[in-house]
Write a structure and sequence with these properties.
Helix content is 37%, strand content 15%. The chain is built from 16 helices and 15 strands. The strands form three sheets. The protein has a seven-stranded mixed beta sheet with strand order 4-10-9-8-7-5-6, sandwiched between helices. The structure holds pyridoxal-5'-phosphate. Pyridoxal-5'-phosphate (PLP) binds next to helix 5.
């Protein structure tokens, strides 16, 4: 039964209390991987062993770690304004950051709603989509369309439109009225492609089938990751996103890009929307907006969506949605300083310039034992390994453990795929170091 500790007792020096997210807790606690500080491209362990960051933390530390201007901005903000309520009140940095983000987006994506994570950003975008149709008198548009293998965080909205079975199957009936496009990946047609594969644009046409099944008048929005990251780095087939956009336009369906990973430079542009020349109606963002230094997420909506809400009596709240920590002063300060670093160091252009070298380095592992496929786009790579019989995922998991312990390298695994996404400040030599180390690890787990 529950036992309480006396309030004055010292904090326990053990690993029991913390229930780690998306982690096999018992294995971790048997052999924990701790980092205690970070600077630029490296984490450091308690015994001061450097660990090269091959993953920008969790796809978020795009400017590198503990960067001086960002640290200074957060410190200043904590001293000056620790918190301001975002309902009915505001502080200047929230407006400044919203304007700076809007300036990075194409076309009329000008209205920024803040929250604290990618999951909240996705649920916010889905709710705005439903409410948008409602306030326009098309309240029958309630269906949401996601995609198989999609990852949109862990809120009920996000797991409902998401398409990763383990993130869904334990959690009941999820949202009703959700349908899914097919995943865009085919190893047969796409293996070892650098950048966007040629095969697969036609998979967008499945949206027409879904429209024929349900009728467009019942469909509110389609949400996709322009590049699916968490399911193992799946770049979009050439022309796929353009086709989705055209079908959405034909049927009055909103198109939402989940750019939680692709936003802020990962693909060599501020947003994937720019790389692909496709303008969605909303972009969900998080992670890179503060380079991971303070939690923050948000939704960028086009003018038309915002304006549709600005019609009733002026004293009435237009959108009944928001979070206690929306536009938190520390997050806004971190965001502004991060955007300065991206601009001053031209990090998005740097990612673009490094893309060919990164792709070449990744493809050098093509003939390594057990490698089934390598996919690259921008500064992201997925290296898919063959599963060992009866233990799916174990090989890649062991690769991650060995990379950390033996090679001083942080990598991520998604199923049997090793995912690499270093901070955008990575050098060519560090890219080579990352893939050399990954190669050694792949051999070790062969
Ligand atoms: C595309 C995408 N959407 C949403 C999320 C969820 O973000 P968070 O973990 O901040 O809730 C992620 C996280 O990796 C993501 O990759």
């Amino acid at each position: 039964m529950a036992q309480t500790r006396p309030a004055a007792a010292p904090a326990p020096n053990d690993l029991e209390s913390y229930w780690l997210p998306f982690t096999p807790n018992r294995s971790f606690k048997r052999a924990p991987r701790f980092v205690v500080r970070a600077k630029d491209m490296h984490y450091y362990t308690a015994d001061n062993r450097p660990v090269l960051d091959g993953t920008a933390g969790l796809w978020c530390s795009n400017a590198g770690h503990s960067r001086d201007p960002i640290v200074a901005a957060i410190t200043r903000a904590a001293e000056q304004l620790d918190y301001a309520p975002p309902f009915q009140f505001a502080h200047p940095a929230a407006f400044e950051l919203a304007g700076r983000i809007a300036a990075l987006t194409p076309a009329d994506l000008n209205r920024v709603f803040f929250c604290n994570s990618g999951s909240e950003a996705v649920d916010t975008a889905l709710k705005i989509a439903l409410a948008y149709h409602n306030v326009r008198g098309e309240g029958g548009r309630t269906r949401l369309i996601g995609r198989e293998r999609g990852y949109h965080g862990v809120g009920f909205g996000g797991i409902s439109v998401g398409g990763i079975v383990n993130n869904r199957k334990f959690f009941g009936s999820l949202l009703s009225g959700v349908d899914h496009l097919p995943a865009t990946y085919s190893r047969e047609h796409q293996a070892f492609t650098k950048g966007e594969p040629q095969w697969g644009a036609h998979l967008a046409d499945d949206l027409e089938r879904i429209v024929a099944l349900h009728d467009a008048s019942t469909i509110a929005a389609v949400i996709v990751e322009p590049m699916a990251g968490s399911t193992g780095v799946l770049p979009p087939p050439q022309g796929y996103l353009q086709r989705l956009r055209a079908i959405c336009d034909r049927h009055g369906i909103l198109l939402i890009f989940d750019e939680v990973i692709t936003g802020f430079g990962r693909l060599g542009c501020a947003f994937a929307a720019e790389r692909y020349g496709v303008v969605p109606d909303m972009i969900a963002f998080a992670k890179g907006v503060t380079s991971g230094a303070v939690p923050m997420g948000g939704v960028i909506a086009c003018d038309g969506i915002y304006e549709a809400f600005m019609r009733g009596p002026e004293h009435v709240i237009e959108l009944f949605h928001g979070y206690t920590y929306s536009a938190h002063p520390l997050a806004c300060a971190a965001g502004l300083a991060t955007l300065d670093v991206y601009r001053d160091e031209k990090l998005f252009a740097r990612a673009k310039a490094l893309e060919p070298h990164f792709a070449e380095a990744a493809m050098r592992l093509k003939d390594f034992p057990g490698v089934l496929d390598i996919r690259t786009v921008g500064l992201a790579a997925g290296i898919e390994l063959a599963s060992r019989a009866g233990t799916p995922g174990l090989r890649a998991y062991q690769a991650m453990e060995r990379a950390f312990e033996e090679q001083g390298l942080m990598i991520r695994v998604a199923g049997e795929t090793i995912a690499l996404s270093p901070p955008l400040i990575v050098s060519e030599a560090q890219i080579d170091e990352i893939f050399d180390k990954v190669g050694r690890v792949i051999k070790a787990v062969a």
